[in-house]
Specification:
321 residues, alpha/beta, Rossmann fold, 7-stranded parallel beta sheet, globular
Length: 321
């Protein structure tokens, strides 16, 4: 682009990039508008970006579909502060020549470490025991040993690969499932690929890291949960809709699982009447797996890198990976 670009952050809530020094690197390229609150209506969302050449989508709660693209003839790029692109209709964007640049692998160490921590918190019943102690109760529940147990990873991308590395570091036996297994990929990850059924039936911990797509929506439902051991832990650090959350609640309430660690939800913030909040053996975090200072800096810098690359005429089209 020869002219200065208009770059808009349409809804930076909760704050991600609003006060980031990374934005200063865009000043030579264009004019930047940051909205610190989420648009309350579709009309307001469109009004905020109507003249934008670039949308910097810092929060995946702000979605972009064909109906919006039809009203944004000037839009050329959507850059995300995320790996996931489920907030964007990629086919519609592609048809209109809109580039979508996400960040494969950038947040892998942060998300994997977070989910690894949730695994321990569930296994040692940290939430249950903390709540009991605050109520003056001294419980001696049976916790789970993780060393030597089987960790089954669903989704063998960058986050899954890092989760596998962490699991091996404490002596877990790591297996995995992916839509596209190969001997070369198994060797590079240091895992053995199994069928999904075999992974679910044999794993002591099942950790979800597959990207959300038409194929993966509802991948883990009631039937899949029923195949898991009653002593198993389920972790979801992918997207909420990969998992049938009502089925998970049912399994937890019936003690058909030991427990679960969840960082993603169908509605965010989570409504106070969401049944997952009433489950005992869960550890819940508010979509915070990559909310460390290091992660925020890394994802903000990567988003700005993608915008500058696009404006220099070398777009990074990562969204299909």
């Amino acid at each position: 682009m020869n002219e200065r670009a208009k770059i808009v952050v349409p809804g930076d809530d909760p704050p991600q990039i609003a006060h980031s020094p990374a934005l200063e690197r865009l000043a030579p390229w264009g004019d930047i508008v940051v909205h610190s609150d989420r648009p309350s209506t579709e009309e307001e969302k469109i009004a905020r970006v109507r003249d934008a050449d670039v949308i910097l989508n810092s929060r995946s709660a702000i979605t972009w579909r064909e109906s919006e693209f039809a009203q944004l003839p000037q839009l050329r790029l959507i850059a995300t502060c995320s790996v996931g692109t489920d907030a964007i209709d990629l086919d519609a964007a592609r048809a209109r020549g809109i580039v979508v640049s996400n960040q494969p692998g950038v947040n892998a160490p942060f998300v994997a470490e977070h989910m690894f921590g949730l695994m321990f918190a569930v296994a040692k019943q940290a939430a249950v025991q903390t709540a009991a102690l605050k109520e003056g109760k001294w419980l001696l529940p049976t916790n789970l040993m993780l060393q030597g147990k089987r960790l089954g990873i669903v989704g063998a991308g960058a986050i899954g690969a890092e989760m596998a590395r962490l699991g091996r570091a404490i002596g877990m036996q790591v297996v995995a499932w992916t839509f596209n297994p190969s001997p070369e990929r198994a060797e590079s990850l240091g895992v053995r690929f199994l069928s999904l059924d075999e992974l679910l039936q044999s794993s002591d911990v099942v950790s979800l890291h597959v990207r959300l797509s038409a194929e993966s929506t509802g991948l883990i439902g009631a039937a899949e949960l029923a195949r898991m051991k009653s002593s198993a832990i389920l972790l979801n650090g992918a997207r909420a809709d990969v998992l049938d959350n009502r089925a998970l609640v049912d399994a937890l309430e019936a003690r058909r699982l030991f427990g679960a660690g969840i960082d993603v939800y169908s509605r965010e913030p989570v409504p106070s009447d969401d049944p997952i909040l009433a489950c005992e053996r869960v550890v819940l975090t508010p979509h915070a797996a990559d909310q460390t200072p290091e992660a925020v800096i890394a994802t903000n810098e990567a988003a700005v890198d993608n915008i500058i690359a696009f404006l220099e005429g070398r777009p990074r089209v990562n969204a299909a990976e």
